[in-house]
Amino acid sequence: MTDGAAGGVTVLAHGVGGRGDLPVPFSTALVGAAVALLVSFAILAWAWRTPRFEDADAGWVLPERLTRLVDSAAFRLALQILGLLTTAYVLVAALFGPDLLVNPTFGVVYVLFWVGLVPLSVAFGPVWRLVNPLRTLHRLVSWLLRTRPEDGLLPLPAGLGYWPAAVGLFGFVWLELIAPSNTTLPVVRMWFAVYAVLSLMAAVIYGSRWFDRGDPFEVYSKLFGHLSPLARRAADGRLVLRNPLGHLARLPGSGAAAPGLVAVISVLLGSTAYDGFSQSTSWVRFVQGSGVPEVLAGTTALTCLILLVAGTFWTGTIVAGGMAGVRGGSGLPQAFAPSVMPIALGYMIAHYFTLLVLEGQRTLIQLSDPLSNGANLLGLSGRGVDSTLANSPELVALVKVGAVVVGHVFGVIAAHDRAAALFPRRTALLGQLPLLVVMVGYTLGGLTLLFAT
Amino acid sequence: MPRITAARRVARASAAALVLAGLTGGLLAGCASGGETDPAASPRNTTEQSASPTPSGDASTPSTPSSTTPSSTPSSTPTVRATVLDITIANGKVSPNAEQVKVKAGTTVRIQASGDAADEIHVHGYDKALAIKPGAASSLEFVADQTGRFEIETHETGALVYQLIVTP
What we know:
- The structure holds 2 protein chains of 2 kinds.
- Chain A is mainly α.
- Chain A has one domain.
- Chain A has 19 helices and 3 strands.
- In chain A, strands 1-3-2 form a 3-stranded antiparallel β-sheet.
- The two termini of chain A are 22 Å apart.
- The N terminus of chain A is likely disordered.
- Chain B has a domain of 89 residues: Cupredoxins -  blue copper proteins (Immunoglobulin-like).
- Helix content of chain B is 16%, strand content 35%.
- Chain B has 1 helix and 10 strands.
- The longest helix of chain B is centred in the first third of the chain and has 27 residues.
- Chain B starts with 5 loop residues before the first helix and ends with a strand.
């Protein structure tokens, strides 16, 4: 990154940011793996037999006023306008700013939005649906046409579920990780233009309900939002504070079918794994030496990793059902899919938290001068990035390994509770073993990526 | 009320012992080897030699690369120990191919590049650029004072040449 140096345009191979994290020391990763394995077996040994997280109404109820405020039309409208204005501000930079890396568009898209939405959702719940500018635009269009936003021309097809979101998320991670020239404005503009047009068309056809399960970023925010302690009571919709694992158990929601949920989670986990994997010198050496086009090799590897996650998870849950003696096991992958979310969160933190802290700062500074013409609209122009984090590789390594291990532990707990709910008491422990093996596999894979790439 | 059978009690006790032993062992192992960086990838392409082309160069013996002994010469200007990274471009192929190099922070890194086609070497993170002119060799020197992972790549061909890992 140029830090304001005159004329210095650098085209980066892997998106924004020039200074990468050091590989995690092998000993740290080894300790992490040992802890993850041992705690997993300890959980099994001291397992509780009756599910603890299945109560839809549990939680410490928050004041009625808070629920009324959050649900009020004024608050919702204010958030929607905020979302629209922020998008417009970034659009100015994207449409009229120079096509250089000092343009904040890239940092906004790849860091503040894609990575930043995760901690925001884990803290406050599914926030993107409150600020999604496409939802606001659709609402505006419906208002002009004197129709209700929820009404479309057709009802949503039953089997659609989360599949459109899975496809959309794959499209975005492909843009983020593989698309050539993805840090140039034309490519980013094109992606979002196509995405916006398709989304609005779908919303017009199916109504605003399309966004609930079809919009990739709303689903992304919703899935991480289910790890938030801020939840709603099923009985009356009041806001409560509850154990995040209990909130997680509400996915996919009271036994309702959720086609495509496993696909979405596989895309999340697989793409984060690919991000780490594709930065290893052995992979780059292989691709550069083989003469295979980089885009083809990358897309193949990304797809394979996603399919690997999906395949291992699906197999693990089906075998688990078989060992537990449960009939009709085809619904098991969906039922257990939420328990992978803590692992996905651990992966995201491990791979992206330094990016968010460092490049996020840089992007905010750049946003102060959206057209790169010397303006200082947010009062941040000219400031330097505080790189204390980057200068503490030991702390960074600890956070990364810690995130993956803690994510694993919570995933195992969530899977155990779900198994206690679904499997007969006698075989619940036995039935969990295949799933435990799969989760240990994801964690060991994640730790390997941290030290070997 | 679930009956806790004797067998389950034994299983729990042994699991507890196993967990405790394992955690203790794991933590001890981690602390004992703490601070070690991964020794697996030895820097293959680093040579340490005295800075012969620079004005402060002296006539130290270049035949034994490990013997950078500034103390052996009476010259007052200390020779600069630099990690040299060579880059060559020939017939559209860039060499080396994604080589990983590890150096300690504070090391001087010199990139020596030559090629038969015009190109530019970019060192990310440090934001250095080195132009390659066909036929002539060029070099760039900088001190690796920031820790982290930095990509060194060619601009035109878009190939990763070196991954520079600067350890504390």
